[in-house]
Design a protein that fits this description.
globular; 12 helices; single chain; alpha/beta; six-stranded parallel β-sheet; 302 residues
Length: 302
């Protein structure tokens, strides 16, 4: 396909997505790591090399994702890395443009967000907290490693202290986080084993999502999947496919660079856009502005 034909295809897809949004009675946003990558929060390359140079030299790390599984020899080494990882992905970040523009698309609509991202970007961008279900946790929260109790703890103060006092890829022993109940090790609240803590707020968000799906069942509902890969397809991708198939009035949109696909069963009610999520969202916004200008001119003419 020539570059011109590719561009024409993207333009038509943008127009179709704009029409879908205008016609939808409800919008469910399903977001994966590809959305944050589109917003500039990549886990490899220049960003990783700039912030983790000494860790790369000492441990041979290649990216932030695989570094998260590194078998550190001590808690002091582990938290030197993780405090920096959390800081640069949770606290030292503004809201990404892709997120703020996405909010502009849906803020006046009936929407809900389900995401596997743990970087808090939806909240930073201004999405309503009551409309967000972060299934996999949050970098900004600590929990007991063995889940001896169900409380989660804000970690910003501790993370900043670890970052400020780390040296030679270690933090002082007195800064290693310990569970206030059992005295054992703490962990970041990320779903990586059977000890992941689902607190009251997590369950409230889960129930809110389930209620939104139930209350909008049978309506013209748009399932908008952004940057979801095949690491955990059972959380967003597969349920979106099933919910679209079950509701004849539903429509499924997948935007993902290199991984935009839909099953044959819902192909006629699907739109798959193989492109940069941020650019597509930006173009959809422009399409809406064109419509508003056209409506304004029509009103003046009338």
């Amino acid at each position: 396909m020539t570059e011109t034909r590719k561009q024409d295809a993207v333009t038509e897809s943008v127009k179709e997505l704009h029409r879908c949004l205008e016609q939808a009675e409800a919008v469910v946003i399903g977001a994966g790591s590809g959305l944050s990558a589109a917003a500039g929060f990549t886990y490899s390359g220049k960003r990783f090399e700039e912030h983790f140079r000494e860790f790369i030299e000492k441990y041979g790390m290649t990216d932030m994702y695989s570094a998260g599984f590194y078998p550190f020899a001590s808690q002091e080494e582990k938290w030197a890395y993780w405090s920096r990882h959390i800081y640069y992905n949770r606290y030292d970040q503004p809201a990404g443009t892709a997120y703020t523009q996405l909010l502009s698309l849906v803020k006046e609509r009936n929407y809900f967000v389900i995401t596997t991202n743990v970087d808090h970007q939806f909240s930073l961008a201004g999405f309503e907290e009551s409309r967000i279900f972060a299934v996999q946790g949050d970098y900004g929260l600590f929990q007991c490693k063995k889940a001896c109790h169900k409380k989660l703890y804000n970690n910003e103060k501790q993370v900043r202290a670890m970052l400020a006092r780390q040296k030679n890829c270690r933090i002082p022993s007195e800064l290693v986080p310990k569970c206030p109940v059992c005295g054992g090790d703490m962990e970041v609240n990320l779903r990586c084993d059977s000890f992941f803590v689902e607190d009251e707020a997590w369950h409230y968000a889960a129930e809110g999502y389930e209620r939104f799906i139930r209350e909008n069942s049978g309506k013209r509902i748009l399932f908008l999947e952004l940057g979801v890969g095949m690491n955990t397809p059972g959380i967003i991708k597969y349920p979106f496919w099933q919910l679209t198939w079950q509701n004849p009035r539903a429509f499924y949109v997948c935007i993902n660079l290199g991984e935009a696909l839909a099953p044959e069963e819902i192909r006629e009610r699907s739109l798959c856009i193989n492109g940069d999520i941020g650019k597509v969202i930006s173009e959809v916004l422009k399409e809406g502005e064109k419509d508003n200008e056209s409506d304004g001119k029509k009103m003046l003419a009338d």
